[in-house]
């Protein structure tokens, strides 16, 4: 007997979305001088709020505020004092976690189960972790008395809005830098709530500045001569542009770009666990994950059985209302991203791969894409080479470990990979040969603030998280 799920909606009453938002500069909310824009709820396309857009002059004000705070307050402050602010922010994030999670799900479209259980707890963990380093920087391995770099310009994407903010701001502040951060244009709301949290924590004005806007605002920020360091997470294309604009300046740069990770399943793997890992690898956050396991490489002798179990599991995924606590797969973040996913999925069919989705009813309004798997994929297919950034899995097969490694590394990217096998020696043999910054063994998409994260090749350079993540923000 099968029981149906009853709706289990999380209340949105805890969030108070204002009709309009300004920029956060020098500890105050101020007007922007660009053309304001709207952020929408991707689950129903309803407008949520009007957001100020920072033009070049606004960015200039924000950089000046960050510089003043760096010179007079934050740079000279002892690390043990800075740590107190970071601990305070971490605790407020925990106290306001439900509010942050609901707001993130409304603005981004991700399931509340993920924003509540993954994104927001990791945000708090990141601030706690880097708070602990603030007074121990001399023991981090970057010289006995490392200094902050200065003012950091940080540009982040829409897939993990608050978490990417934490990855950028926590290490920068712990090391004594001040920041100007630009959130993505489709997901600015949790960054603006974070600005309120900075005020609540009585963080000195100008230490954190948030400038909202689209690509032009990001460009004005990374090209500003008053910035000492640029940190960017987003597409490889924009990453390339930023690398060109920073070249020849004294600015430091870290880039965290796209990925096309191989999730390798050997025939001896525990298949049911592997299926859970595959599902988590590609359907977590609608596949809007730079380290998503978007290429499944399965050993030929186990392929039929694995695919059968995978399809059965996919048929149980619940797609729909992001605020329903039963939802597994939420809304696609924007119309533009949905169009890109559709285009690539269509290309997969046109190039001859076989497309399959479970029967699932999608809501009439909003941006939705059913969980999809392609079999019979060749390495030359666009769906095997390009980042789809959606709930679309491409399946390839292999016969020997050598072939698995060769196929896994046959990509311009190198951010992450997964290995599933019962043999420890095979895990080590495979991991050693994969050109990927993160390799998960018998698990996938596990994150910890103590562990460095970053890519090889076109996935970017520099590491975020852990002791390694301090390096980008310190002058040894
Ligand atoms: P994007 O790179 O255009 O946007 C990321 C951030 O950069 C946003 O804040 C954006 O406003 C800003 N930006 C855009 N142009 C800029 C410029 N010239 N200078 C400075 N900042 C600029 O990414 P997107 O258009 O939202 O997504 C396109 C594709 O990128 C996706 O389909 C996906 O493949 C990939 N992507 C990867 C990640 C990741 O985490 N690695 C995140 C988002 C998108
Ligand atoms: Mg939005």
UniProtKB/TrEMBL annotation:
Keywords: Oxidoreductase
Record-annotated active site: 256
Residue ranges constituting the Aldehyde dehydrogenase domain according to the UniProt record: 30-475
Highest taxon listed in the record's lineage: Bacteria
PROSITE patterns: ALDEHYDE_DEHYDR_GLU
The keyword Protein biosynthesis belongs to this UniProt entry's keyword annotation: no
A Pfam entry, by short name: Aldedh
Family label: Belongs to the aldehyde dehydrogenase family.
PANTHER family (UniProt xref): ALDEHYDE DEHYDROGENASE-RELATED
UniProt-recorded name of the protein: Aldehyde dehydrogenase family protein
The species this protein was found in: Actinomadura fibrosa
Organism lineage: Bacteria, Bacillati, Actinomycetota, Actinomycetes, Streptosporangiales
């Amino acid at each position: 007997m099968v029981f149906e799920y009853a709706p289990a909606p999380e209340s949105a009453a805890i969030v108070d979305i204002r009709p309009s938002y300004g920029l956060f500069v020098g500890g105050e909310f101020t007007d922007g001088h660009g053309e304001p824009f709207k952020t929408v709820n991707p689950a129903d396309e309803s407008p949520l709020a009007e957001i100020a857009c920072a033009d070049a002059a606004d960015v200039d004000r924000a950089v000046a505020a960050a510089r003043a705070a760096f010179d007079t307050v934050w740079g000279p402050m002892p690390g043990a004092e800075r740590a107190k602010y970071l601990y305070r922010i971490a605790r407020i994030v925990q106290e306001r976690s439900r509010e942050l999670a609901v707001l993130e799900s409304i603005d981004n479209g991700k399931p509340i189960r993920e924003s509540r259980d993954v994104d927001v707890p990791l945000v708090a963990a990141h601030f706690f972790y880097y708070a602990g380093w603030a007074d121990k920087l001399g023991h981090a391995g970057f010289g006995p008395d490392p200094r902050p770099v200065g003012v950091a310009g940080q540009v982040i994407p829409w897939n993990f809005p608050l978490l990417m903010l934490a990855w950028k701001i926590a290490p920068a502040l712990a090391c004594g830098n001040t920041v100007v951060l630009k959130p993505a244009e489709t997901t600015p709301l949790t960054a603006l709530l974070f600005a309120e949290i900075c005020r609540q924590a009585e963080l000195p004005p100008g230490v954190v500045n948030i400038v909202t806007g689209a690509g032009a605002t990001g460009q004005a920020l990374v090209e500003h001569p008053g910035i000492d360091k640029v940190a960017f997470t987003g597409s490889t294309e924009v990453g390339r542009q930023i690398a060109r604009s920073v070249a020849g300046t004294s600015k430091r740069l870290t880039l965290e770009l796209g990925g096309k990770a191989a999730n390798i399943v050997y025939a001896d793997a525990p298949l049911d666990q592997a299926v859970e890992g595959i599902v988590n690898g590609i359907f977590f956050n609608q596949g809007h994950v730079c380290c998503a396991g978007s290429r499944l490489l399965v050993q030929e002798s186990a392929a039929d059985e694995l695919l059968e179990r995978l399809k059965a599991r996919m048929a149980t995924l619940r797609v729909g209302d992001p605020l329903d606590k039963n939802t597994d797969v939420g809304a696609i973040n924007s119309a533009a991203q949905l169009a890109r996913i559709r285009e690539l999925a269509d290309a997969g069919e046109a190039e001859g791969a076989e497309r399959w989705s479970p029967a699932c009813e999608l809501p009439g309004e909003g941006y939705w894409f059913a969980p999809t798997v392609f079999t019979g994929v060749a390495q030359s297919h666009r769906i095997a080479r390009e980042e789809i950034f959606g709930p679309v899995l491409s399946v390839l097969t292999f016969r020997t470990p050598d072939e698995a490694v060769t196929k896994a590394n046959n990509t311009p990217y190198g951010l992450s990979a997964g290995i599933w096998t019962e043999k420890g020696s095979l895990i080590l043999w495979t991991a050693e040969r994969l050109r990927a910054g993160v390799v998960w063994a018998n698990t996938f998409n596990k994150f910890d603030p103590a562990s460095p994260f970053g890519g090889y090749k076109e996935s970017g350079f520099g590491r975020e998280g852990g002791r390694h993540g301090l390096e980008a923000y310190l002058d040894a």
